Amino acid sequence: MNQHHDHQPELQPEPSLRPFAVMWGGQAFSLFGSHLVQFALVWYLTESTGSATVLAFATMMALLPEVLISPFAGALVDRWDRRRVMIAADAGIAVTTLILAALFATGSVQVWHIYAAMLVRATGGAFHWPAMQASTTLMVARRHLSRVAGFNQALRGAAAIAAPPLGAILLGVLPIQGVLAIDVLTALVAIAPLLFIHVPQPEQAPGERLSVLGDLLAGVRFVGSWPGLLLIIGMVTVINLLSTPAFSLLPLMVTDHFRGGALELATLQSAEGIGMIVGGLLLGVWGGFRKRILTALAGLVGLGLAIVVIGLTPGNLLVLAVGAMFVTGFMVPIVNGSFFGVMQATVPPAMQGRVLTLTTAGAVTAATLVGLPVAGPVSDMFGVPTWFVVGGVVTALMGVVGLFIPSITEIEALAAETLGGETAPGGEPTVPVGLE
């Protein structure tokens, strides 16, 4: 892979990890605060409206910027100062949360205010994530990138475990504006280090920069010319169309089907977070089957069956649903990690950013946005468990069907023949399948 970096001096000393560690620590606090806010707002909507349609629309507001902005955000942060992008994103999210807290404190909050806040917060995240990832590659030595990715996976799993039960406890002792204020404080903790540390910018070679639209069109042409990759993206689209909306309606399933409250919802979400950590560690140690696509397809079958079990669990057997949520969380990194490995093997390094961004925006976020408006009203009519069953069955079927399509099962071998075995450099994966 050194041929891709001939412009860098080979004897250049490794960058110190201290600036990145300081930045990462601040962002860890911010991530935890964001999880608290997400839990608090979703639970408020669940208790105050009891509507699957409202929950579905709230999720749409949180996802819409990923579809409209993320395909362009990656190219834009390469043109802007990344440190300022992260500061502006964190500050914008904090101000939005502060305004929402004030509305709650004065008793004037309305549902549309929460929708707007979710939209603005997600817009900030659409810029913050690529800026953070792009900065990481310049602040961390290449031999440490996989370790950083592991820490990030563990951090997300830990936040998924700790934030829901803590959020439930805090909502019991604090008004919701008090919980929102915590997120404002954690955002300030994330911003403070960025004011004092140096975040390097990439060198721009003369004539190397293309237009943002040109980058996007090149990525679209690449995806359209690769049958196996196109089929995988199609599978991921169908899965997220039917399965991911079910999890956005989980709070309503807790109240209507399991007759539970915030603690029961927190237990289910924490079980999923524990499963994600265990599954991620297993994949990291095991590495999966020799054909990574087979690991992903097998994981899809297990994931689908676990989702079906959640949907079929009787209302008086919450413990069974907790176990199924653990299995769901366990299978998500097995599927996502393996799918990303396939993407590394099939997409040339120069195309990775564009293709992965397009895949996430289209197959994950856009598909979820299409499914949510249908999932809400259908679940209001037939119950949320029905949507879990349908989504789980389709997810498992996608895994089984994929095993019988040669352009999918042999995608890595075909890529090696076409690309001469070229694979991508290390880095943190963009998750191709949702269900987080």
Q: Which short descriptors sum up this protein?
A:
436 residues, disordered N terminus, single chain, Growth Hormone, Chain: A, 2 domains, mainly alpha, disordered C terminus
Structure in words:
- The chain has 436 residues and is an all-alpha fold.
- The chain has two domains: 185 residues, Growth Hormone, Chain: A (Up-down Bundle); 225 residues, MFS general substrate transporter like domains (Growth Hormone, Chain: A).
- 77% of the residues lie in helices and 0% in strands.
- The N terminus and C terminus are likely disordered.
* Rg (CA only): 21 Å
Class of the largest domain, according to the CATH hierarchy?
Mainly Alpha
Tell me the distance between the termini: 32 Å
What structural category arises from helix and sheet content? mainly alpha
CATH superfamily of the largest domain: MFS general substrate transporter like domains
User: What's the rounded overall pLDDT mean?
Assistant: 75
Count, helices = 18
What series of H and E elements makes up the topology?
A: HHHHHHHHHHHHHHHHHH
Task: Note poorly predicted spans.
Answer: 1-11, 420-436
Work out the helicity level.
Answer: over 70%
The name of the CATH topology of the largest domain is Growth Hormone, Chain: A
Q: Please tell me what the overall shape is.
A: globular
Number of strands: 0
Largest sheet: none
Percent of residues in beta strands?
A: under 5%
CATH architecture of the largest domain: Up-down Bundle
Number of domains: 2
